[in-house]
Amino acid sequence: MTTTPASTSPVTSGPVQVSYEDIGGSTIAVVTLNRPEKLNALTLPMLGALADTAKKLSADRDIRAVILEGAGESFCAGLDFGSAMKDPKEIAKTFIPGLDGVNTFQRACWAWRKVPVPVIAAVHGHCYGGGLQLALGADVRVTTPDARWSVLETKWGLIPDMAGMRLLTDAVGQSNTSWLAMTGEEFSGVRAHGLGLATHMGEEMEDVQTVARYLTERLLKRSPDQLAAVKRLVLDSNRSPRATFRRERIEQAILLAKENTKRAREAAFKKTAPVFTRRGTWAGK
Q: Could you give the angle at which helices 164-183 and 130-137 cross, rounded to 10 degrees?
């Protein structure tokens, strides 16, 4: 792995920080949960900040990828119940869905599926409850072997409600989702990788972050328009076959007219590395 990104200082402060790195001339965003003294447990303001951050990054056509990671000893230990339950009125507000049918809890995780660039979660330490659901909001998940994963909501007599039932089922199927959501079994990164919750496995914390950047570097070699199209199709993959096939045809027709598709094709013929322009809009502009 030869990735040596140039980092900048965080451009946002607080428990959800955003910084930018340059990998091979492309800009990526690094979103860091920065509440290490609490194992990055999620507060209600953090949920809102995560959703807002995903929305802002979605609108930035110069960003090529996003890495989600946690500061300190853990990725995320789940919801900070002590903090959240201090204001019952505020927590009740977060349950109210918006016009899109998604509430604040769900949007904090689901919003990353709608960011039109690859999102990679680098998991170490604890990955419990809401943290596990946040990781599943990413397209790719790297874990250390000794990370601890659990659908922890069952401990409180609850279900994973931060888009977790859909995200879990997408990742590991119905039977495994039923078992994990019913039992709250705690397991290692090795088992998470075997189940498909994690797509890749690193070693220590520094290595898992390096792996995340190595995978990002590989994805940067592909057209940003093609990557965005894949995300849209995966997001709608639960439609009927007929509807899915129609979307495939539409996406492919739009891609064929894209400048980045032309650049990828020409580079493939010449056996050179493609140089892409910024991501286009969905309509092909």
A: 140
Task: Decide: 160 and 153 in contact? Cβ < 8 Å.
Answer: yes
Burial 5-25 (b: 16+ CB within 10 A, else e): beeeebeeeebbbbbbbebee
* Chain centre distance of CA 88: 29
In angstroms, rounded to a whole number, what is the distance separating the alpha carbons of residues 243 and 221? 30
This model's pTM is above 0.85: yes
Bin 194: left if φ > 0, else alpha if -120 < ψ < 50, else beta: alpha
Other Cβ atoms less than 10 A from the Cβ of 140: the count is 19
Give per-residue pLDDT as tens, 183-240: 999 999 999 999 999 999 998 777 899 999 999 999 999 999 999 999 999 988 788 8
Residues facing residue 7 across a β-bridge: 21
